[in-house]
């Protein structure tokens, strides 16, 4: 049986999968204050999230991160499927970076000291888009 993962996808899937899974596990038992801070930042960038309670938001975020991390780590999940999830998730994080005041230098995409933690999520977006482009070009051949 051939696995739906190309050898060239193994390293980026392991790196992003472990990182995202760890992030989800770390959020599992956050206190109310931390949940309120995470939720506050997210709802400022994405107002529709204001409908959720902070604890519910963090519980959903944690479960989503753990599911995505596992999908990236498990070789039975096709890279295109994991890539769609990674691209959508990381696009949301990059949007958070772009929409949150104080994360970027005035009139620039360059991160401030505070924004560096969010700006680094662009590497995950690049990997996710790379997976999708790789799949599209593979099918075109």
From TrEMBL:
The keyword Membrane applies. Keywords: Membrane, Transmembrane, Transmembrane helix. The keyword Transmembrane helix applies. It comes from the Bacteria. This is DoxX family membrane protein. The chain crosses the membrane at residues 80-98.
